[in-house]
Amino acid sequence: EIELLHQWIQAGADTARTIGELAPEEKLYAIVIPIIEQRMSPEEPQYDFSPASHELIQSLNNPFRSVRPAAINSPALQASIYVRQAYKPAYLEELTQVKDQLVYLNLSNLPIRDEDLSTIAQFPELEELILTGTDISGENLSVLEANKKLHTLSVSNTKTDNTLSKLLPGLKSLEKLYVWNTQLSEAELE
Fold it and tell me: Please, are residues 48 and 71 in contact by the beta-carbon 8 Å criterion?
């Protein structure tokens, strides 16, 4: 970044000049193009599992549930279920049909209970789970240890308590944990 700024200043610090106007032999061009290419095409995770059929994916979509590919040409799927008042446990259970492809699951603000976590534990490829605003208390969180690839978990705005701290050692891949507005004390958060 320092070298980029240095070369931009050396080139005249022209704020109106576009990247397309840079000549390939300019030092600034040699610095800025790799940065842009990296940001424009971040590395997509590579998955070695088979994709679910298009027909199955379409059958799982309804006005209250969205199932779609996580990226273009990727077998990975992401799912979100919406509208607390319309929620049916079957909406979650039916996702087991794509359990080997599901990497992202958003259940925000749904009446998901501790016993529903057993269904979620059946998704071996799950990487990100959003339980924000659900009715979980944290009692059954230990079943999520079955989700070996889980790297992001949000239990914000739930009744989750210190049982969460007992779960953490079992979540070996966990990188991000969101716990705002839970029953955890300041000491437990530390």
Answer: no
